[in-house]
Amino acid sequence: MKIFERSDDLEFFLDSCRNDNKAVSLVPTMGGLHDGHLRLVEKAQSLSDVVVVSIFVNPTQFAKDEDFDSYPETFSNDKLLLEEQGIDVLFTPSKDEIYPNGTLSNYDVGEIGRLLCGSSRPFHFNGVAQVVNRLFDIVKPNYSIFGEKDYQQLLIIKSLVKNNNLNVSIESVSTQREDDGLAMSTRNKYLGTKDRMKAHLFYWQLSKAKTAMEQGDPIESVKQKTLSELSINFEVEYLEVLNANNLKQIATNTAEIIIISAIRLGETRLIDNIVFRRPNV
């Protein structure tokens, strides 16, 4: 596994790979790696000859009151996991490498970035798009892989690629879960013992809602019941049932549905979603 800190060095290496007709995949991360990240890596390995994993905690996607300064730093363990996984390149740039001209930007991903998670984190997705676009500019990947747990982010990245006419294929991997159903996340490390014992109820309630809708129960009544039940154990930031293709309101002919939610458990913010096909549509 080659490790690069400078973008110029990485670009020189990847140019030589492309000269040998090797396809390149990028898996962007902020570290704190877990099995969910490794499934992204496996997908990348199945698609390409050279896999680049980046670790960069991006300051532009954090608000002042969020956990940028305390975000888990587990580089030694991350490096070991990636070596065992057999990746080709680990890219660990500094902020100056990613933002040589400073972090100020006019990035605006539009209305989709102000919905759902964007309503409480108004600059978050602009920052995500900014760093991903910069990584694409450095790595020039044929493929880039993202997890479906961050579903809103996934749609925004696909939109970024389409709007900027970038020559990269965005691939996704289904949400990886712990044995009790909790979606794997770096921020799960923040959960105390008691909160961790309750955390699986988040996915359980979303699953109950999916089953009820598949059985034909009215969507709005299921949503309100689920919101009430979630509120027993969690502070609910949002719970929505939307068109999975664009996160807009469901129409009569909408077939692909997403139940998507964010909650707080103690000091920890968790997100999750379930996508399914609407019966008889």
Number of domains: 2
CATH architecture of the largest domain: 3-Layer(aba) Sandwich
Instruction: Find the structural class using helix and strand composition.
Output: alpha/beta
Strand content: 15-25%
Helix content: 25-40%
> How many DSSP helices?
9
Q: Radius of gyration from the CA trace?
A: 19 Å
Quote the distance from N terminus to C terminus.
48 Å
Order of helices and strands: EHEHEHEHHHEHEHHEEE
How many DSSP E strands?
9
Low-confidence blocks of residues: none
- Placed side by side, the strands forming the largest sheet appear as 1-4-3-2-5-6
Which features would summarize this protein structure in a list?
single chain; 281 residues; alpha/beta; Rossmann fold; Pantoate--beta-alanine Ligase, Chain: A,domain 2; three-stranded antiparallel sheet; 9 strands; 40% helix
What does this structure look like?
The chain is an alpha/beta fold. It has 9 helices and 9 strands. The protein has helices spanning 7-19, 35-47, 75-85, 95-98, 117-120, 124-139, 151-163, 193-214, 219-233; strands at 2-4, 24-29, 50-55, 89-91, 143-147, 169-173, 235-243, 256-265, 268-277. It has a 6-stranded parallel sheet, with helices on both faces. It has a 3-stranded antiparallel sheet with strand order 7-8-9, covered by helices on one side. The mean pLDDT is 94.
List the helices and strands and how they pair.
Elements: E1 2-4, H1 7-19, E2 24-29, H2 35-47, E3 50-55, H3 75-85, E4 89-91, H4 95-98, H5 117-120, H6 124-139, E5 143-147, H7 151-163, E6 169-173, H8 193-214, H9 219-233, E7 235-243, E8 256-265, E9 268-277
Helix pairs in contact: 6-7, 8-9
